[in-house]
Amino acid sequence: MKGNKPSLIPIEKELRLLYKKWPEFRKYLKMLGCPTQSAEDLFQEALLIYTRKKQDPNFVLTVDAFYYVRNTGKLLWYNQARKEKKQATFSLESDVEQLNDEWFEKEMLLKRMESAIEELGKKCQEILQLFYGLGWNMVDVAKKVGLRNDKVAKAQKYRCLNKAKELVAEQETSNNADRAESKSNDQFKKLEMNENWTKFIELYLQGELSPEDTAKLQAELDRNPDMRQSLELQKQIHEAAKRSGERQMIKGIRKQYQVQKTVKTTLVSVFVAAAIATVAYFAFQNTKKERANADANVTEQAVLGKYKELDKWSEFANLQTSYFEHNGSDATFLSPKGILISVPSKTFLLNGKPYNGKAIIQFQEALDASDIIKAG
Fold it and tell me: 166 pLDDT exceeds 60?
């Protein structure tokens, strides 16, 4: 059974530091002819590859982490430019050879398989990403996605896996021009539609089959090549779902980076990470007496329980909701997770005109990877 805590937390701090190097990465790829939009996609892909490489016990990093990420991005851009038939103005250096060709090709296959997972419904995506990508157990997954219990969540997971296998089989069929191969894939697709076999294989991969059923499946695998292919495909979907969850984590880090960058440049509606929020909060406390008259009616922390009837208007049903009382003048609030919220006067509109009267602010926050996935 999986653990109930995200397994990627130790690397998140390193990825946040690496994301601060984004401007340097962008400048480097720009010199190689890569446009900014493509560069950001390649940066996230390079960070994802680095994340996955770090999980390999045999991987030894012999260069600076950013140097590795930068040259991975260079290789990715080289491959993309080649496919788009753009003239390459650079050559690959020997240091990118740390990306083993076979391993790299496997990663690119899994990236293509991620597209099948993206075609699943939102709940299916979330179940697979939380279970395989973040290492959650099914009890906690059920609570997160709003299912009754872990048994219901498991049944849903089997259906999601089966649908993902069907979508991958369809992709393979559409990519094959050869009729014989297409016929073979059609037969394989029929096999994938058997949800019972998907469940059976999943229990086998999770080590939850009885010795008798394990022997039965081994005999079927020895006898049936399609079943062996089905087993391998299911293992690949596990990895693709894990990769998808890791990608969502990196997208979450990107959002945090953009928020912090906005804070530094605009100083309006400030949303800061906990360490910055703590410093600002103490500064706020020091000037609190001076603002006592102006802010007498402003509540600086969440009003717990008083406005719970407003929860039905929350944007995200499964995220914690906080409420702040605002009297219309410049005010600052501190959220339960340490985010500083600056609300200038006349922030809100009423009938299209600036409003500076009393208001109740409903606030939800998603800072960790699992909450960001939940919030979309």
Answer: yes
